[in-house]
Predict the 3D structure of the following.
Amino acid sequence: MGGKYDIKTKIGEGGSGIVYLGQNLNSKQRYAIKTLSTEEENAIKLLDRETQTLKRLNHQNIVKFIEEGYENSHKLVYLVLEYLDGQNIKEYFDSGIDLKTKLDIFLQIIDGISHAHSKNIIHRDIKPDNIKIVDKDEKPVAKILDFGIAIITTTILTNTIRSYHTPLFSAPEQINLEGVSRDSDIYSLGMTFLYLLSSQQSKINFHEQRDKTILYNSAQDTLADCNALSLVNILKKATDKDRENRPKLDEIRKIIANLKEELSEKITVIFSITPQFQ
């Protein structure tokens, strides 16, 4: 690929293209290479502004964008990204981690999104599938995938699709093609957090019925013992159909940070009693 990367194997595929594991021929460093099919040889020039902006992102919770190129022999635009050997966030949450760890991961995600928003970059497709968890010094670190890739995909595929997003997690204004903003990312973030806090059955019901009140109720039930109604309420506000009513990222962050601190102050003592002592 591009005379620079040796393609090892396919690691993902979606409506927008195929993702490969590639290795730099010189450094032997591994990368994720996202490919998008297009006959437009000037696609790279069209994307120059977006890709240059993405290269300015430098945050530990955002997957790093390395470079872009056009492979003429296969008519592919390719995007070289940091390769992660991690776990999908849904699978990680389903493995039974404690609430304090979940909240810490939420804060990491918010920090990553805040960094991008400070550079006027909107994700456009925040969802559980676009967040991975990797181990760093035996601690879970959240990594947001595909930051800004949605706008690149939309630009390349303008002849085939009008908007690139995931309806279940996308804001109403995005689905209705009324323009996106930071508030649109906040809606998707709220939906993602509610989804991750919900029970397995509620996730299934949500996919089938496409009713977000299922997530509201399930998250509230899940957090009932933790006095975390404030978290559910702020996430409800984040997923308001009117973007003017949605909170800012700092407001969501404050609620989550306060709840995490409250949990840290509680001490849980676990002990066992022998049958004889009982």
In short: The chain has a mean pLDDT of 88. The first helix runs from residue 43 to 46.
